[in-house]
Every structure is written in C-alpha cells, then in structure tokens.
Hints:
5 strands, about 15% strand
Amino acid sequence: MIVVMGVSGSGKTTVGTRLADVLGVEYADGDDFHPLANVAKMAAGTPLDDADRAPWLDALAAWMAGRSGKGAVVTCSALKRIYRDRLRVSAPHAFFLHLDVPRQELERRMAGRGGHFMPPSLLDSQLATLERLAADERGDTLDATRPPEDVIRDAVAALKR
C-alpha cells in the first residue's frame, strides 16, 4: 500500500494516478472519501480539525484494509503523524511518499487550478499542520517541483529500497 501525501497543491493526484498506472495497481483519491460536511467546510475557507478528519481517515483506512496484500495507491494529505498512524492500523506496511513543494510553488499551483473545493486561503493551515515523516516512518520525501515522470521514477526507486 502506497500513500502519496502532502499539502494541497503538491501534486498528489497527478503523481498518485500515474504511479498506480506504472505499478498496475488500483488507485483512490483521498478527496473522494471526505464527508460532504468536510468539503463544505473547506470550500467555505475553514480548516478541518482532528475531529473533522477522523471519519475521513477511517473511510480511507477501511478502503486500504480492503486491498491488503493486493497493492494500491491512495492519495491523502496525511499531514500529522497521528493521521498516518491511524491509517497504519489498517495497513501496517503502508509506504508514505511525501511530495515536498515550496510554499511559493504551492501558491502558484493552487491559484491556477479550477474546480477544486480547497481554496488557496487554506494553504497556511495545511503548512502549519504538516508534520514531516519521522526517521522511524516507512516512506520517503520527494522533491515534487520536478516533472511528474521524474518524481514517479524516484518513487519507484524508493519503493525498491
């Protein structure tokens, strides 16, 4: 199980879908698991808190558990260690790929995309919440300012290590 993580605008969907294609496994977008109340809250410019994220993380964890041993890629911000730990309950061997992008590039990307419920005004709250992968967490951090093909190549190499 691979979790492509990072703040909004980091390229999770682009990298996640292409990585799943390269690996020949199922893909799920974490945004599709948000309760409607969460989507409405974010669309209104209000950051989610831990209580808001709990049912979302549980839905993702259930999806991940249903693919145990099959391999899959899911995108999820997974901003805090406690969120990643919650997902690991259902997928203990999950590998987290953190897509790292500087703030200025995130702002540019978010301003240029349309049709997404997450407004650029929530970037500050996401960056403040983000806890980078710890040394004891299974995963890798990738520079996602590069072309997606380069990020995916490095992701595949990280999975083989």
